[in-house]
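fwd from M.: "can u put these together and see what the complex looks like"

so here's what she sent:
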Amino acid sequence: MTEPLLKVEGLKKYFPIKSGILGQVKNYVKAVDDVSFTVAEGETLGIVGESGCGKSTTGRMLMRLLDPTEGKVFFDGQELTKLSNQEMRKARRDIQMVFQDPYASLNPRHTIEKILMEPLNVHNIGDPKERKKKVHDFLEIVGLSSYHAKRYPHQFSGGQRQRIGIARALMTNPKLIIADEPVSALDVSIQAQVLNLMQDLQKELKLTYIFIAHDLGVVRHISDRVGVMYLGQMAELANSEDLYEKPLHPYTQALLAAVPVPDPDFEREQVVIKGDIPSPANPPSGCRFHTRCPYKMDICETTVPIFAEVEKGHSVACHLYKESRPQ
Amino acid sequence: MAQSAIDKNDVNMEKVAGPWKEAWRGFRKSKVAVVGMGIVFFFILLAIFGPLFTPQGINEQNLTNKLLPPSGEHWMGTDDFGRDILSRIVYGARISLWVGFLAVVGSAVMGSILGILAGYYGRWVDTIISRIFDIMLAFPSILLAIAVVSVLGPSLRNALIAIALINVPNFGRLIRSKVLSIKEDEYIMSAKAIGMKDNRILFSHILPNSMAPVIVQGTLAIATAIIEAAALGFLGLGAQAPSPEWGKMLADSRSYLTNAPWTMIFPGIAIMLTVLGFNLMGDGLRDALDPRMKS
């Protein structure tokens, strides 16, 4: 197997909870706790999970918009977590991000041209004439027109703004795009358009995506592989087909069982999980899912399951599978 | 892509308008605000060109003509030295507007710098700057101004400095809170994701987006600054005789209140009208620029 484009090892992010006038650290919110995965060039990795499971935090740490508490990120043979801030800024040329809220991610006082030109200015790509041409080219590529360049963000609809957000991410010819819930703020009909655009662009420009979402249907549509996160940890990671057809982790099973199916006669397998997601400041001992798991065993309360490959290309962290039990 | 062709069309009809143009459109809708702007422009024109047309010099004393009531020759009468009050009010507009404007620019610049530092860098920088603001705001502003002037010595320039200083925390707090909210906006995150440097983000994203409230506060603060300058003048701590500063004119005419009320009424009306104009205009600007009012 060739070297993956992105390799993440033991990524952690703890946010301190401070209290008192002196700001003593009382506890930590373990937003992301020991997550590892790889992404091969040209593929799309979907990351799903409930709100607050750490998927966005993970995405932000990959480009060091947040500094990880621990862990390593390798990108294209370079260890990003070791770079100085200066070097990291330059490295961001190859990793770009598409944001969730197309209404908030564009500066309302800048024209589209200025917004799209900004990455080129920052990284000193081309001369002013070339930059302008590139802006117009990319507007066309994402399905807008070059005459839109002089307009302001508030003159566009949500879907159009997200196209602009995508165009901005593409300006520097990045290799990897981290899309943090890029369609969850959009109408369903627009979602499909934007997703299809992203897929077309991936083929044309040979992009690699990390696609963060909470909508399982959307993720299935676009991803080659899917990782399911629960409370800051990776619960299951597998090829899209395998994960949706044969989920191994009880949490994944429950999530999939909750996806609505457009068929009134469909008999769903009932895997119902009870209760709320526990606080990441005080996560349950052992397997973090044990408080809600229908198959809970004694070992689950005491021992953390190992995230291990159970079948080829299908990893899971659950004591139901012997590979996950520590020897 | 048939879908995106539909997308394209829906923005074609709209004329391309920047955020400022749109604010201007909103501003024009309010009649009161336009009236306020009219008053402000009247006084600005008066301050610039008025002195060219005044009937008499400001300091030409003519003791035989003292305390004359308004007449064809002296439209607003004369004061206790026989000086033409109309001429002095026209010159006074220059002083008052100039003081108001300079003081506000001074406090807006200082306040913005401190506010941005406090808001963007946070932590101890924020704590120190915010506590200083709190201390300054704990004093009634005119009292603080009097204290500053008594340290520096009474003069118009020192009154201006005092007024600029006491208004710093108003601007500082305003900018700080604005920066705090903008800092969390996703477009700041996206600027970082692009690889932009901190100071560039500050100047190209945060600063322009936090300016709207400063403009509103600035217009309203000019009104307050004019009153404060007049108050200091009235107390003898601002402009010194024979300067035709409105507050000073009021103070000088106190003793003639009963037998020559015009010496007091006209400077009073001048102050009131200017302040009213700036306040109306400021209110209109606030409605036009306030993002919460926008659809």
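replying to her w this: The longest strand of chain A covers residues 24-39.
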